[in-house]
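Read as chain and fold; for instance:
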Amino acid sequence: MNRRLHLLVALSLLGAAYLASVVYIVHLRRTATNPHGPPRLVIRFAHWQLESGMREAFDFIANRYMALHPDIRVEQFAVPGRVYRQWLSTQLAAGTVPDLVCFNSTDQSDVAQLPRNFSAITRWMDEPNPYNAGTKLAGVPWRLTFIDGGRNRATYIDQYRNYYAVGLSSHSMRIFYNKDLLREITGSDAPPADFRSWLELGKKVRAHRPGLIHVAGAHDNTIWLMPTLINQAMAKWILTGDHELRFAATGFDVFGDMVAGRWDLRSPPLQTSLRIMQAFGGEMTPGFLQLDRDSAMRAFMRGEALSLPDGTWDYPTMRETAKFQIGAFRLPLPGPDDREYGGYALLPVSDGGAGTALPFYLARQSRHPEAAIDFLRYVTSLEGNRLFSQASHCMPSVEGVEIAPELQPFQQNNNGYIITDVQNGPQLINGAGAAYTQLFETNLHVLYAPDGGVEAYTRVLERQVRAIVLSDLRKQIHIQRENLRRRDTALAALSFLGPAEQAENIHQQPSQHLNELHLYLMETKLAAAAKPQP
């Protein structure tokens, strides 16, 4: 009897859920068709930004846009980050992907899929943004209205020589700290001015209260911040790979030198970088490699740690929940006279160039590409980006949008040296490819173990690193060759279509030739570097 009752209840709940979904779908269709007026066109966009205030900010800017366009409905899909990639893959396979998709990956296999899933938007980027009419940006090509000229790893894909996305905001990496706690420990709320002072502060923190942590550590925020720190600290050395005299070194430049035998993990600059990594991790929560970013955030918010390395995208959440005053600073680099940690930085150092974030791509499956692009144009106009920045508490991505006073401490510092190009800047921790990144990350525990350290970590890595770098670089070449083949087919098809397609073919041919030339150059360099040394 009980089993029958349970089965009946379960079937009733299932039926109710099905009926509710049918009613919801009918409601959406009625809303979209708008029976009391003209048919409504629906634009959908998806993202994983679930930080405090972000969904409300997206709703706010969507409502402003819909007020300007009563015949268009804009719908938001906010998907948790942990399942976002799986969700997106499912939507792409099912043909139900939203018109606009937030997506960001520097993995070569992901980049290779971009033309298959998303449309190039170069032709729109070359046109003025109509929502800037009557402003100081009137008549300026859309791409040039962004603080980075629309060019960064996520928005402009170098190997395709095309724009694929626009960024809605900008951000920077900072060390957030508890001003009240710092004042209690040191008598001042001013952050340390140099790397040695930062290390000395860690000693004071640990002496102040048993169990108090200097830096709330986690695997995620360490992997975000540490590559930037190491790149900046090694800037002078990285430039030795700039054989084409561009004052910028690509990942292929640096790691091509490695397989050519010009450096290895025991070279003094690399040993210095590993010592910096060890010192950085030594200030963090014991066992931080096993913790996630939420654990670190909670420890910081509870006052169990003085500081937290994080991106400014998390500031709105911290601002909403903190019971103390929050400050932020950029982790200072070791000075040139520091024998243990210094000697390879170019000072002063820039944040790495003004770059945009929160990139949105136009899905190839979109049924309303022109309307979707129009919505992006509004969000990235002077008016739209100002409103979105104010509502989300994120820094703007558009040139000339005033940064709110509360965000001034997070403004990117661009008065300094930038030694990596924005398309393919090397990262000593995860620069050559996926296998190289895995080698470094999966063995990081050796660097921080009580019986480990720089020497032990070096021994573990050097057993495999050269072979793995060669494999990753060959994979890059293979992917680029396949991309060229696919694009050759598409360009050939354009030449047999109408005048507009033929003009687009002529427009894209030079970039295809440049990509092919770069491929041959990579192959030649790698073949020479891989030869046995006499």
